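To: structure desk
From: M.T.
Subject: fold request, one chain
Message: Could you run this one when you get a chance? Sequence is below, nothing fancy, just the single chain.
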Amino acid sequence: MNSVRRLVWPYLIWLGLLIVVPSVFIVLATISTFHIFNEYSFKFTTESLQFLRDPIFINAFRNSWKYAGMTTLICFFIGYPVAYYFARSENRNKTLYVALLIVPIWSNMIVRIIAWENIFKPVSIINLFGLSFDLIGRDSAIIIAMVSMYLPFMIFPIYAVLDKMDTALIEASRDLGASATQSFFKVTLPLSLGGIVSGVIMTLLPAMTAFALPERIGGGTIILLGNLIEKEIFRGSFSIAATVSFVVMIVMLGLFMLIIRFDKEGETLL
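Reply: Done. Structure tokens follow.
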């Protein structure tokens, strides 16, 4: 048992250095004058917290929920039927088809973002097909690109739950007189709630904190929380960047607790 416990130490060290320590620095930079770059004085202050009432932050926070919410909703309505189809499919190659959904994730996200950016410009490769778009800076372009980026993160958790679901429960409901629609809404959908919650959160979080995508496809005019953090860091306002990051951490923690609430065994977490 002791030899097994020793194997945990590399993970604990990694966890401490890459997660705990940076998180402590973010909290300290939020509530004090401390930061690790060029200033080692320490004095508690709430000055950076005043930024949370700034219209810039409020606008970025609102935009993040707006685009992330719409993206998550669209991903759900597309992803659930796809996950349901693969889970119920008896094709022996269905695992391969599901694995193919991972292929786009293997490519660099910046490359995919630039590809969408070029497609949304008036002059692009799609001109060869007699099509032309001028969508840079528009909501529709950002949402389309976000959906393409984060759709797999909605599909996988739902598929994991549906694939493990006991089909005998559905058959029992049908034997008791329920229609196919009633069986879906009273048996399948409630039992897949854990996967839905996980998929929603795993889509919502990266969409909320995206910065390269809205910067490129939004034409630099649409600011999300990720963009705001980036801009404040390059301006040298580390305390404000830490404050915004702290807000994101609180949101992430709250949503993670929601996952645990519906998925106590963590089966749907990727």
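Reply (cont.): The chain has a mean pLDDT of 81. Let me know if you need anything else for the meeting.
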